Amino acid sequence: MTAEQIRQNYESGLELARRYFMGDADIQRAARRLAATLNEMGIAYAICGALAVTAHGHARLTQDVDVLLTPDGLSRFKQRWLGRGWVERFPGSTGMRDTEHNVKIDVLLTGDYPGDGKPKPVRFPDPASVTLDLGGTATLTLPKLLELKLASGMTAPDRPRDLDDVIQLIRSNALPRDFADSLDPWVRAKFDELWGYAQIPVDD
Q1: Fewer CB within 10 Å, N or C, the chain?
Q2: DSSP alpha helices (H): ranges in 114-179?
Q3: Nearest residue to 96 (alpha-carbon basis) of 152, 11, 38
């Protein structure tokens, strides 16, 4: 990579961060557009991933929208909207792309398993039961977000950011150690471990 390419990447990264933290990045526009459409159709959903992490107090950049849907909800959405502002990333894929903003939509399905995808006590839930309404956009509640992040990071070595998200969310929300009691027993020991790391002072 040349010095000019590095400079261009740096400048584009600054612009992306500026727009993101102003709430005006393409990914945020795509998330609001998707949420409005799902609301209009009466389809239960929950915004997940980095956008949910940001909503709960730890702001970090991302380039795609993660949304939790039931298989039926995804089917209904695709039947009505594929080719009308959203397309499949490849034929038959679960994920989509918002063609208006050119943003990738990653769909997580109720009943599937986070992390390595293998059976475990924690599964992606029905979004109707685990959401918080943020002015017209439904996002995961903090306990469920932490539970899924822990299950993912515990079983997928290539996803260390999930565990870091937990540490940062513990810090930004000043969560007590016994917050673990609100999580699935399978992830409580890992939460307790990361809670300890979150108590280490961070130099500003």
Answers
A1: C
A2: 142-155, 160-173
A3: 38
Which of these, 184, 171, 201, 196, lies nearest to 145 by C-alpha position?
Answer: 184
CATH number of the structural domain spanning residue 131: 3.30.460
Q: What is the pLDDT of residue 156?
A: 97
Residue holding tokens 């409580």? 188
Return d(Cα 180, Cα 168) in angstroms, integer.
Answer: 15
The predicted model scores a pTM of: 0.89
Strand 103-109's sheet: what is its strand order? 86-88, 96-98, 103-109, 64-69, 46-47, 138-140, 131-133
Residue 160 lies in a domain: yes
Coil, helix or strand at residue 161:
helix
pLDDT at 18: 66
CA 27 centroid distance within chain? 12
Instruction: Give the mean pLDDT per block of 10 residues along the chain (204 residues).
Output: 73 64 78 96 96 90 92 97 95 94 96 98 96 93 98 96 97 97 98 97 76
15: in domain: yes
Cα–Cα distances (Å) from 111 to 58, 66, 75, 86, 126, in that order, read 27, 16, 15, 24, 8
Range of the domain at 186: 3-198
CB atoms inside a 10 Å sphere around CB 199: 10
